[in-house]
Amino acid sequence: MTELNIIGAPAEAGAQGPKRSARHPGPLLSQGNTADARCDWTREEIAALFDMPFNDLMFEAQSIHRANHPRNEVQLSTLLSIKTGACPEDCGYCSQSTEADSGLKATKLMDVQAVLQAAAQAKDNGSGRFCMGAAWRNPKARDMPKLVAMVQGVRAMGMETCMTLGMLDEGQARQLADAGLDYYNHNIDTSPENYANVITTRTFEDRIETLENVRNAGINVCCGGIVGMGETRQDRIGFLHALATMPHPESVPINALVPVEGTVLGDMLKDTPLAKIDEVEFVRTVAVARIVMPQSMVRLSAGRESMSEACQALCFMAGANSIFTGDKLLTAANAGDDKDALLLGKLGLTPMMAQPHGHLEAAE
After folding, report:
1. Which end is more exposed in the chain, N or C (fewer Cβ atoms within 10 Å of the end residue's Cβ)?
2. 87 labelled ligand-binding
3. Are 362 and 217 within 8 A, CB to CB?
4. Which cofactor does it need (predicted)?
């Protein structure tokens, strides 16, 4: 068996499963230590985590979660589409692509005041983080003043701010950093090997370049991906390996594909067993993400609408500590505030207080 350094795993006499290696001894949870994050995970180590007996995997993930995060708190985030549709990218999962025949009506960039009104309502509903998404390949110079005003206005309400606008150059990233943007979302979507099967209009390396521009500007990184796109477990291993061997994103959204009719993947997977990822496999993915990125926020994103309460409860046990709440994500349906409140109450989980983050140290 591949020897592992399960950071934060408690020693247990006679325990079966992955072992901590002499090279990466790591602290023990039983000693009350908080783990330092590793960035040298191998694919073999991550594969061994996926192969662990389910109960052992859940125990390790929950133990590491408790060492690094408040144990029964969940961050509530709201996502608003501030510019919908007509995106020139050909992402196979996305109804906003011009390549999709989804019937989605394109809209222009929203007015600043309308966005701030939506943010205020989200705050009233308990959200501590407000995320703004625009369907662009990249924002234009003419868009930046409005985007800056949105960030400043939402942050003035005491909420964490996040944007996802496509690719950013260095100057755009610095403009958003100067406005006070807390997080920028730019997902890698899948493994490097599977990427071209999902998107052809930009490369995996393009994604990494934007992430570097964001981090160099001092903005916290939000980066994850989508499972249930017909990929193999090896692709899920490769996806988490890519995330865990870069500077760990401060926030890691894990999406379950919502197959939309008229999109490449929606039509390809329709009426097949691959149209919905197995719930146990999804929970395993969340648990492995928590173990290999112990200090990151792990967010349940798209796909919760079709998940059972039991599946979501297991995801929280596996270390997920953030959700998108509200009735709608960018274009897909979501569980809704009332339904989420009932579930969190049933599980004894409480909303995390908003804490706008300080920026990373910007590169010179």
Report:
1. C
2. yes
3. yes
4. [4Fe-4S] cluster; [2Fe-2S] cluster
